[in-house]
Amino acid sequence: MTSMTITTTTSQVPSQAPWLRAFFQRCWRVGILLLLVVASLGMSQLAVAQADTDREMVTAAPGISADQWRQVRSGETGPNYRDSRFDSNYNLINSSGETWRQIRNRWVSPFGLITVGGMIAVIALFYFIVGRKHLDEPRTGRKLFRWSLLMRSLHWTVATLFITLALTGLNLLFGKFVFRTLFGDAVWAWMISASKVLHNYLGPVFGILLVVLLLKLLKDNIPKKHDLQWFKMGGGLVGKGHPDAGFANGGEKAWYWLLATAGLVVVASGFVLDFPNYGQGRDTMQWANIIHAVGALGLTAVALGHIYIGTVGTEGSLEGMTTGYVDETWAKEHHNLWYEEVKDQALSEEEVAAQKAGSSSGGDVSATKPS
């Protein structure tokens, strides 16, 4: 009798477990949504604080009056307000500087924060509602060589520099509203100083390596007719099946050309700001600063989507850029046209391990030629 009771109780557990799991998953997702709502409210307050340029002006320069601004706009500020450079008649206090401050703090900073924060919220909602994109078919265990060690090293170096520049740039733009309040002036001053040094010195390195990366990837990112269908199907989210894609799909090509256009504009404007000793005036540097900030904030927002899709968002995507190899199933589903070109070059896991062992030992191992 006792054994029957135990058996009955055990048999009920599997039928109840899915309901419990579903209940806890709903509670967990509702909690995440509430957290996002609270975070968005906090970000909106931060955006409003950024847009209040008059309050910042009172803190930065409390002695400025309407009469002084009239004097500045008339150009009669005198030698005490002049640029210290030799033979310069440029006034350090000028109305163009106030225009730059208004544009930067009233428009660029708050809307940039909304753009980056909004992208984070959209990605989080997409993940919790739609979830990760898993492979439709089981993995075959056979691998296709996709990225060489050189390309992987170049990619991760550029990616690390991009993330570092994004974080330091965000700190320079918004840090005073966050870290100064949390940690005080001493810690905040150290963070700003470190951010400025890192941003100024790593920026040119990033720019040079980005150009190298873009040149290496150019031939695989030429737009094709099937890329239009890729966008119509939302990369496979709309309709059934997967859209055609070569070595790079439509989304990857869009990211490439965004880097090749807006990315290079950000790099160029950064060089203008980083090297002021080539004769450019402050008016030029003010506009370069606005262009740099708008482009960098936009790229950061889009990069968050690229990072999500290439890591937790899509099963198998990260493997190619970490090991150099992708599974046949992944290649067939996401890059079917490229798969048809290289499917005869698939290797078993044992062959891949043997190749890596031979490469590390300096042996003569013939690796599959990457596309």
From TrEMBL:
Family statement drawn from the similarity comment of this UniProt entry: Belongs to the formate dehydrogenase gamma subunit family.
Location of this chain's protein in the cell: Cell membrane
The protein's name: Formate dehydrogenase subunit gamma
Organism of this sequence: Halomonas qinghailakensis
Gene Ontology biological process terms, A to Z: anaerobic respiration; formate oxidation; respiratory electron transport chain
Molecular functions per Gene Ontology: electron transfer activity; formate dehydrogenase (NAD+) activity; formate dehydrogenase (quinone) activity; metal ion binding
Enzyme superclass (EC): oxidoreductase
Cofactor: heme
Chain spans, region Disordered: 350-371
